[in-house]
Specification:
By secondary structure, this protein is α+β, with helices and mostly antiparallel strands. The protein is 48% helix and 20% strand. Helix 2 runs antiparallel to helix 3 and helix 5 crosses helix 6. The longest helix has 25 residues. It starts with a strand and ends with a helix.
């Protein structure tokens, strides 16, 4: 099934199927009691979600929204859990996937614990380039979401992005002058 940029795959609090992301990127947004949305996770190809329901059912922790057009395989919950009961060796594959996600989260912790805000942003941009190709981070996330993801205020993200753009312009002008 195809989910286009901005479309919702599932909503926080609902229950239902699991999903395997074949291509694309999704974000998981959690809405708090006061209505404030917070970006809590990015889902990449080859992940099966929701992670907290891989072994037993649970309501969706957040809302899944496509960041770019994504191809998603629907895994009906009843079939998924029946298959686990009948094939306990599949738990190893689930453990491997959760291990990969843990490693990704360790990279996020590395991004969050960088001393300088500029370094936090650069590390996030580099990580996203793995999945975005020619698109930029701001093509898929708002400045507010970028800030939430790396522990910065939106205003700081805005300033850093403006500084990066100015540096890129200066480099281009220098290269042009050298020719």
């Amino acid at each position: 099934m195809k989910v286009h940029k901005g479309e919702t795959l599932f909503r926080q609090g609902e229950t239902g199927a699991l999903y395997r992301i074949q291509s694309g990127l999704l974000k998981i947004v959690r809405v708090h009691e006061d209505g404030t949305p917070t970006l809590v996770n990015i889902i990449v190809p080859d992940e099966t979600i929701p992670h907290h329901s891989l072994i037993s059912p649970s309501p969706y922790y957040g809302t899944a929204v496509a960041l770019i057009t994504s191809e998603v395989e629907v895994l009906p919950a009843a079939s998924w859990y029946r298959d686990l009961d009948e094939n306990p060796e599949h738990f190893r594959a689930i453990a491997a996937q959760l291990q990969d996600k843990l490693r990704m989260m360790q990279q996020r912790i590395d991004q969050l614990t960088s001393v300088s805000p500029a370094t936090k942003l650069i590390k996030l941009q580099r990580w996203f380039q793995t999945y975005l190709g020619t698109m930029t981070l701001t093509d898929v996330l708002t400045q507010e979401e970028i800030g939430q993801f790396i522990g910065l205020r939106r205003e700081t993200v805005n300033r850093l992005l403006r500084e990066q753009a100015a540096q890129a312009r200066n480099r281009l002008e220098s290269e042009k002058d050298e020719r």
